[in-house]
Amino acid sequence: MPIQPDTRADMRRTFTEVWRKLEANEPLSALEQIIADTIRMHPEYQTLLAQPDQSLDKDWTPEGGQTNPFLHMGLHIAIREQLSIDRPPGVKAAHAALLKQTGDAHAAEHVMLECLAETLWRGQREGRLPDDQAYLDCLRAQLRK
After folding, report:
1. Which pTM value belongs to this model?
2. 41 with 47: CB under 8 angstroms?
């Protein structure tokens, strides 16, 4: 069954359902396997995923110092998709350099995640598509740190 979430709750339900399937050792589709890999990297979110009634409608706000776990994991998945097709062109090379710098795939993704989130936020705030060049520039700036 393909995953085609229409709402925030549907997307969150997808994560909680994948967690349920993992816990029950049920088979996963290819997309569910990508989601499962992301969930495995984030044990701090697994208790939340096991309680969908408490997480599907919850709001996490940066002003409250909170990280939205669904957004966080979704950005990891977006980065993996970018890497699989090298879109925007150059993101794969930036990832390879970050991986070499950090020595850890998850840490490299976290650096990328910050740049991607910033790029998406700016695009949304300015009412335009995300700026691929600004994203790549942010990644390159991280390499100089």
Report:
1. 0.88
2. no
